[in-house]
Each structure stands twice: as C-alpha cells, then as structure tokens.
Specification:
The complex is a heterodimer. Chain A is mostly helical. Chain A has helices spanning 9-28, 31-57, 65-81, 86-111, 117-137, 139-142, 159-181, 184-194, 196-201, 206-232, 242-255, 261-279, 290-304, 308-320, 322-331, and strands spanning 148-149, 234-235. The chains are: A mainly alpha, B alpha/beta. Bound molecules: adenosine-5'-triphosphate and magnesium ion. Chain A: Keywords: Cell membrane, Membrane, Transmembrane, Transmembrane helix.
Chain lengths: 333, 256
C-alpha cells in the first residue's frame, strides 16, 4: 500500500503486532472488557476529531459534542422510525455526514467571523446548549430527558462482532485523518495554530481553512456518535452536553494534543480509569463521582505532563536521538 | 521616471489621540530600492502595517499598481504581489525551517484546498523550498524547528518566507534588527541579489552602512509625517533632516 511507505519499519512492525493482539484479545476477554474496548475505539475517534480542532487548528470548541450527540440521535431516530437494517445504517451515516458538515459550516460562519479564541469558545458553548435543549424538548422524536433506547441492525448485535467493527472504524478514521493532517490543507491548519497572522500574510485565507478543519472534525465526531449510539443502543442528551465535549478535551490532554495518536492512548487510559472507578462504586459511593476524578485527572495532567503520554514518549525519543526527532512534532504524528 | 507601484494619499491613522501616521503621501516606484528612515517611534512600522493591510487607515487611500486597495484584506494584497516581513520575528516556531518556507511556497503556488494528497509529494514545492533555503543560507538548518534557530537565522528565515512568495514588491521591516554585525553583509548580499532579480524593495532600516549600500531613494519620516524624500546623497545633506534627525545624533549610531 502506498500509504505505508511513509511509515518506518519499526513503527510498521509495532502497529502490526498491536493489531494482531487486538484481534486475539476479545476471544480471551470477558464481555465487559470487550464492550470497554469497543468504547475505547469509538471514543478515540471522537477525541481525534477534537484534536483536529484544538491540537491542529488551535480552536477551542466547547460545543463539539453537538456533532457527536447528533450522530447518535440520527442513528437512533432512523432505526426507530424506519427500521433497524443495514440500509438504514448506511442512510444514517450519509445523513450524519451531511448534517454535521452543514452544522459545522453554520457554526464556523458564526464563530470564525473574528473575535478571539475565548469568544469562539463561548459561542460554541451556547450552540451546544441549544442543541442539547432542543433534544430535551423535542420529546415526540427524542423522548426528551429519558433518552432514546433503540434497536440496532442484527449484524451489530453480537458484542464480539461489533468489537471488530469498532476497531475497523478506528483504523479507517485514523488513516483518513492522518492523510488529512499530512495534506497541504492540514499543513496550513498547523501553520494557523502556530501563527495565524503570519499565515494570513502568506496569503492563506485562514477562515476558510479553519472552516474546513471544523467540518472534518464535525463529520468525524458525528460518525463516532453513530457508532457510540449503536454500542449503547441508546442516545440521550448527555451525549450533546458540555461534559461530553470536556471528555474529548481530557482524552486529548492525557494522550497528547496535536498528535492524533494521543487521542487513542488517551481514550484507552481515561476509559479504563473511568471503568475501574465505576467498579469501585460498591466499595464506596464516592467513586460514583466521576466528575471529581475527572477534575483531579485534569489538574494532574496539566501540572505534570502538559504534553500528555505521546508528548512524554516524544521527549524520551528526543533525548535519545536529539536531531532526528525535531521532525516528529512537525509531522504532527 | 519609473512606474509608480505603491502610492499613498494623505494616509493617516490615530491610536486614540496619538496620530502615529499623519497625512503621508508617498509614491514608491517600480524597480527603485527605497529606504524609509526615521527615529524610533516615528511611525515606520505603522506605515507598513497600513500598506500591507494589517491596520486600516483612519483617513487616506492606498493604491497598488493603480488599484485602490484601501479596503482590501492582507490576503488579497498578498495575492496581488505584495510581500512583507516583520520587525519582530514572526515565524511558525514549532514547524521546521523547511516547512516554514515550504508553506510560503505552497501559498504562492496555489496548491488549493487539497485534503488527501501527501504534502511531501509536491516535488516542485520541495525543490523550490531548497532553492530558497540556499538563497538565505539556511540549507543545513532545514530540519531544525524554527524556534530553535538563532536570532540571526530566524531573521533570514523570515526573509526567506517572503522571498518564497516571489512578490513584486517586498516590504522589509528592519530585516537585520537584533542581528550581529558580522551577519549584516550577508543580508546586504541577499537583498542585492533580490533587487537584481527585479523585485522592488522597500526597506525600513537604521543601519546607515546598509542604507547607503542599497538605497536608490530615501524617505525620512519624523513624528508620523514625511519630512523629505529623494536621492540618498541629497537627503542626507538636507539641512532640515540634519536638524530634525541627524542633529539628534541618531543616524550614525548603530541602533538595533
Ligand atoms: N497598535 C497600536 N496601538 C497603539 N499605538 C501604537 C500601535 N502601533 C504603534 N503605535 C504607536 O505608534 C507610534 C509609532 O510606532 P511604530 O512602531 O510605527 O514606530 P517605528 O517608526 O516603527 O519605530 P521603531 O524604529 O522603534 O521600530 C509609537 O508611538 C507606537 O507606540
Ligand atoms: Mg518599527
């Protein structure tokens, strides 16, 4: 494959081994582990979409869950109102892509007109809240605050089978997003993150580029939402909430911002910890307070490893071979 | 008389009560190496900010190649062939030197919004990047992050990035600011070569040896207003200039 030419041999082998392990593990694991891992894969894609925005474009979107939740609802509503078949799944994917690119376009047009990062953060926060509120009130379709349980296509019903679909989903999205980051457009996004004014003076229409970045992120987020909905067979307004956006933020922070792969590492870490804490609920009710731990983890990460796991790893590599490594960050991978 | 490339008409901008640029009308001719001189805080950088579109004037008009560009964005001005560098180094620090220049070239060659082709596959961009890096003597630093370069190297990179845009007119704001004395001749050399290629250069500079070596024309700005303009020899003999500017003992002092 042409794609693989850019990856050096060691990385190639490492990825190969990882994939083999990931294909075997579910056969040995408990059902709950399989579900947890599927969740990790899907939320990794969601976090990668957030990284495209924050890590590569430097744009803080507090309404990012809007796309994620919408994806889950679009799937759920269509499966409920039409039928739970593969055809409808494909339809849900298509509608999610269209809906999210439109929503991102509108969001972008409102947010990217000027004003700073803070203004953008506030406006996106408001937009996200509007979406959440709409879902809560539109009871006839969304079942409001109770949430929407739905039936899914048979092919996804088997947990083990779905594990593989989630894994394939992660692989495909990683390849696509990696290509995007390595494209001329992706490069310009990095330039904008570094220094938007200078990018303007090179003649780049930075708002247009940011809009493209937002649309790519929105669509990716929406698709991960569809998958997440199928995993849970359920959609509720939490999926549209700021909390859900902050989850993506935490995952990318833990993993490493602006690294794409950091989102995968972060998702594995955060979801495993979250799962573990939930198991401790029976020991003491304090472990139900995920938000508390969420906050604590946030503080620890910001204080002790501001560049996340992938940042730490890169630093380690850098210490080993100082020169070659200066490209690692720049490639953004 | 050469064609006028850039013209300003009664250009003014105020920051609150302070008129940083006051009623400046100048014309910059094609092919002439023009240097803008003036004491610190005279408004030189602000004048560049107006011409390049970073700031909008409170009054007056700017023409570029005969078109009124007063209302145009910086992006549109760049596309028309105007390139500028910054007094304070303004590069993409966490990208490599190579990538900084390559991005400039990508902008100039209008690669477009390609989303899934690998950026390294555009051979002509890479070749051109190497050429520019050679021109500004940064070839062996190409894999360093821009932020890791020395100050002088960053100034060269800054220049390389505008050169890569192949502008018709190049606005250079103190390209040697903060550079060591030994590095200045290299800069003069690069600028001379650029001039020979037919690029019109407008320079803001304090270093007199450099100004004398390069300029075809001087414009003196004091307190936001144009004092005199003309032939370098004449201007530096002008009693008004001597009084208002040289008299202050600023001109021969190697300021930063
Ligand atoms: N954005 C701004 N807001 C407020 N005041 C400004 C702004 N930009 C410049 N000024 C003021 O305008 C005046 C002219 O500044 P400018 O930077 O143009 O001077 P300069 O001639 O480039 O000086 P130097 O030789 O030190 O670079 C200064 O008094 C400066 O403080
Ligand atoms: Mg200045």
């Amino acid at each position: 494959m042409k794609l693989l030419k850019n990856i050096d041999k060691k990385t190639f082998i490492a990825i190969g081994v990882l994939l083999v392990v990931l294909s075997i593990v579910p056969h040995l694991a408990k059902l709950s582990t399989i579900t947890l891992m599927s969740r990790i894969f899907i939320l990794a894609v969601y976090a990668m979409s957030y990284d495209i925005l924050r890590g590569y474009t430097g744009f803080i979107n507090l309404g990012h869950a809007l796309f994620f939740g919408s994806g889950a609802y679009i799937g759920g509503i269509l499966f409920t109102k039409i039928d739970n078949t593969m055809g409808v799944f494909v339809l849900a994917v298509i509608i999610t892509v269209i809906y999210c690119s439109l929503a991102a376009y509108i969001m972008g047009k409102i947010v990217l007109r000027g004003g700073g990062v803070i203004a953008a953060a506030m406006i996106t926060l408001a937009l996200g809240e509007i979406a959440r509120n709409t879902a809560e009130r539109w009871r006839s379709v969304t079942m409001g605050a109770d949430g929407l349980p739905f039936k899914i296509p048979d092919i996804f019903r088997d947990r083990l089978g779905f594990y593989y679909y989630a894994l394939i989903f992660l692989i495909i999205m990683t390849i696509i997003l990696r290509q995007f980051i390595l494209s001329p457009t992706g490069r310009v996004l990095m330039a904008i993150r570094e220094n938007e004014q200078r990018a303007t003076f090179l003649g780049y229409n930075t708002s247009k580029y940011k809009l493209i970045g937002l649309q790519v992120a929105g669509i990716t987020s929406g698709l991960s939402g569809v998958m997440f909905g199928i995993l849970n067979r359920f959609a509720n307004t939490d999926l549209l909430s700021v909390q859900q956006t902050l989850n993506a933020l935490l995952i990318t922070l833990v993993g490493g911002t602006g690294t794409l792969y950091g989102a995968i590492v972060g998702s594995a870490f955060v979801n495993t910890v979250q799962n573990y804490l939930l198991d401790l609920r029976s020991v003491h009710p304090i472990f139900e307070r995920w938000l508390l731990f969420f906050g604590a983890m946030y503080v620890v990460v910001v204080l002790f490893m501001p560049e996340g796991f992938v940042g730490l790893w890169n630093k380690y590599l850098k210490d080993r071979r100082t020169k070659k490594n200066s490209r690692v960050f720049e490639k953004g991978l | 008389m050469a064609d006028t490339l850039i013209q300003t008409e009664n250009l003014s901008i105020s920051f609150g009560a302070h008129k940083a640029v006051n009623n400046v009308s100048i014309s910059l001719e094609k092919g002439l190496f023009t240097t803008i001189l003036g004491p610190n805080g005279a408004g030189k950088t602000t004048l560049f900010n107006l011409i390049s579109g970073l700031l909008k004037p409170t009054e007056g008009k700017i023409y570029f190649k005969g078109t009124d560009i007063t209302g145009l964005s910086p992006i549109e001005r760049v596309k028309m062939g105007m390139g500028r560098s910054f007094q304070l180094t303004n590069v993409f620090s966490r990208l490599t030197t190579f990538e900084n220049v390559r991005l400039s070239i990508q902008a100039h060659q209008e690669v477009g919004y390609k989303m899934f082709t690998d950026y390294r596959k555009f051979k002509s961009l890479n070749d051109k990047t190497h050429e520019i890096l050679e021109e500004v003597l940064l070839k062996d630093k190409k894999d360093f992050l821009a932020g890791e370069l020395s100050h002088g190297e960053q100034r060269k990179l800054e220049l390389g990035m505008v050169l890569a845009l192949q502008p018709e007119v190049l606005l250079l704001d103190e390209p040697t600011a903060g550079m060591s004395i030994e590095e200045v001749p290299t800069m003069i050399d690069i600028l001379n070569k650029t001039k020979e290629k037919g690029t019109t250069i407008i320079l803001i500079e304090h270093k007199m040896d450099m100004v004398k070596a390069l300029s075809d024309k001087l414009i003196i700005i004091v307190n936001g207003a144009k004092l005199v303009e003309g032939d370098p020899e004449e201007v530096s003999q002008n009693p008004e200039v001597l009084k208002a500017y040289l008299g202050g003992g600023v001109l021969n002092e190697p300021t930063t």
